[in-house]
Each structure stands twice: as structure tokens, then as C-alpha cells.
Design goal:
Length: 192
């Protein structure tokens, strides 16, 4: 899974169609720069109208991609390596999820605790298309969807990725109110 050199052949068909129809520079674009956007209301409160409607941005252009199911995005049967550490070939996938967590956290009135992230990652792993938990869960769901639409990801890889994220949140959890996972992410992602 290399998300730094994404070709049009890697894109999930419904996303590829939207990119072709909405972006005039399509033949020369860097697909790894397709990113997630979150809506803000007049009071700058962030929201997502429906998690299935994903706002995708490329440079100064945006469009909405509709995705009903993460499970429908599973492609291939690749078995991931041991994810006790973050293998380099998965760095971009982890980065695109965790950077969205940091961005959203900066705009929330109350930061989530480590236990909240454990719950979100566990739900993503066990029930990818399960009920909505909160705004952060929606953002993680959308980021995972976009990642999987950009580069083939098997169900085994997906499960291993979210098991690793859940383990990270659990490792930093020192109690009901600890926010060590967010602190760790801020430190780690400050270099990117």
C-alpha cells in the first residue's frame, strides 16, 4: 500500500469518475493531494451533514463524493505485515487519519480523551459501517473512506490498521481523562 505514488488506476471507480468530471487538470494531478474538508457554520462550528457525503478538496477546487459503505471499498486480499510498529508503506494511511484528528481537535470546544479514541478505533475496526458515535468518528470514517478510495486496501489491512490505532490510544490511556494520545500525535506530526 503505497499512497505517495497513486495512479488513476488505484482510485476507486466512483471517486475516479468524480475526479475526471470535476478537475480539469486531471491528467497531470497528484492524487495523493486529494484531501478531506469539513464544513463550518456561520459561528465557525465544524459539522458534517452526512458522513456518507464526503467533501473532497484538490488545491482550490472541491466536490462531494458519496460513499455508502467502507466495506464496499475493500479491494484485494493482501495480508498486512505485523503492525506492532507503523510500517513505512502504511505511514501515509496513518498520517491522513491522524492529521485529520489533530485538525478537528484544534476546533473542538472539548478535546476527546484517550478512551474516546479507543472507542472510535474499536468501532471502526469491528463495525466499519456501524452507527455514528460523534463528529470525530465521522471524520475518521470519512478519512478512512478517502484513503481506501485512493489506494486498494484489503479487509485484513483495514482491520490491522484500526487495531494498531486502537492499540496506540490504549497505550497512552492513563485514566478516564487522559489526553496523552492527542499529545503524542501533536508531537509526532509536528515534523510533517
Amino acid at each position: 500500500m503505497n499512497m505517495e505514488n497513486i495512479s488513476k488506476d488505484d482510485l476507486f471507480p466512483s471517486l475516479l469518475d468524480l475526479v475526471r468530471n470535476n478537475l480539469t487538470e486531471f491528467p497531470n494531478m497528484d492524487f495523493s493531494k486529494l484531501s478531506l474538508a469539513i464544513y463550518a457554520d456561520a459561528q465557525d462550528r465544524l459539522f458534517i451533514p452526512r458522513r456518507e457525503d464526503i467533501a473532497v478538496v484538490y488545491e482550490d477546487k472541491s466536490f462531494e463524493w458519496h460513499n455508502d459503505s467502507i466495506r464496499a471499498l475493500f479491494r484485494g486480499n493482501h495480508i498486512p505485515p505485523d503492525l506492532k510498529e507503523y510500517p513505512p508503506e502504511y505511514d501515509f494511511f496513518f498520517y491522513r487519519i491522524e492529521s485529520q484528528i489533530i485538525l478537528l481537535s484544534e476546533h473542538l470546544e472539548h478535546e476527546l480523551c484517550d478512551v474516546d479514541f479507543e472507542e472510535i478505533f474499536s468501532a471502526m475496526r469491528r463495525r466499519p459501517d456501524g452507527r455514528r458515535i460523534n463528529l470525530m468518528h465521522d471524520v475518521v470514517w470519512q478519512a478512512a473512506s478517502l484513503n481506501m478510495a485512493l489506494s486498494p486496501c484489503s479487509e485484513s489491512e483495514y482491520t490491522a490498521i484500526f487495531m494498531r490505532l486502537e492499540q496506540s490510544a490504549r497505550t497512552f490511556n492513563l485514566g478516564r481523562s487522559s489526553k496523552n494520545y492527542l499529545s503524542y500525535l501533536r508531537d509526532e506530526l509536528s515534523d510533517f
